[in-house]
Amino acid sequence: MALPPARIGLARTIPAVPGRAPVSEVRSLHVRALETAERLVYVESQYLTSCAVRDALVARMRDRSRSRLDVVVVVPKRPEKLKEELTIGVPQALMLRALEEEARARGHAFGVYDVLAGTDEARGPTYVYIHSKLMIVDDDAFIVGSANLTNRSMSIDSEICAAYEAGPGDGAVRDAIRRTRA
């Protein structure tokens, strides 16, 4: 099925080096998408530890003048290696717990999921290791790229993301984004 024509924008993270200012478009893109969320935030990411993403989501959840959010986060059950477990696993677990508590206190729905591929009697459950980097907001914004939702990807790694956004009257684009999410 072909996707309908739509405008696609690119956002970059380029670290600062002598003689060149940093570029933080990826962080700005994600923060802006969260600030504008009205109903749904869907995230698939290998890691979720970005303070900017956390702060934007908490600020949105605390805004009592706005509607209730459904927040869905799909992340790996656990990092692949011990080093990642120590450097990412603990901070991510703390962040997810804090976001869940914030959502509960403010009346929002917040779910964290992993993907189970099946269960083997001898080995037990087999989990799919999520490696995607995707955010969908209200089926209006679709962001995909190389950046994990980490402080590092938002500031010091070189990253690029594409954003596919539905504008007024772009029902076909919204349907395409919804189908991708579903």
Question: What's the SSE blueprint?
Answer:
Blueprint: E1 8-14, E2 23-24, H1 25-36, E3 40-45, H2 51-62, E4 70-74, H3 82-106, E5 109-113, E6 115-120, E7 124-128, E8 133-137, E9 141-145, H4 151-155, E10 159-165, H5 171-181
Parallel strand pairs: 3-4, 4-5
Antiparallel strand pairs: 1-2, 1-10, 3-8, 6-7, 8-9, 9-10
Strand arrangement in the largest pleated sheet: 2-1-10-9-8-3-4-5
Low-confidence stretches: none
What would the average pLDDT be, to the nearest integer? 91
Beta fraction: 25-35%
Question: How much helix is in the residues?
Answer: 25-40%
Helix and strand sequence: EEHEHEHEEEEEHEH
How many strand elements?
10
Q: Rg, please?
A: 17 Å
| Overall morphology | globular
Number of helices: 5
Describe the main β-sheet briefly. Answer: 8 strands, mixed
Q: What does this entry look like structurally?
A:
The protein is α+β, with helices and mostly antiparallel strands. Helices cover 36% and strands 29% of the residues. It is built from five helices and ten strands; from the N terminus they run ββαβαβαβββββαβα.
Quick structural gist:
The chain is an alpha+beta fold and 182 residues long. It is 36% helix and 29% strand. The strands form two sheets. Strands 2-1-10-9-8-3-4-5 form an eight-stranded mixed sheet, with helices on both faces. A two-stranded antiparallel sheet has the order 6-7.
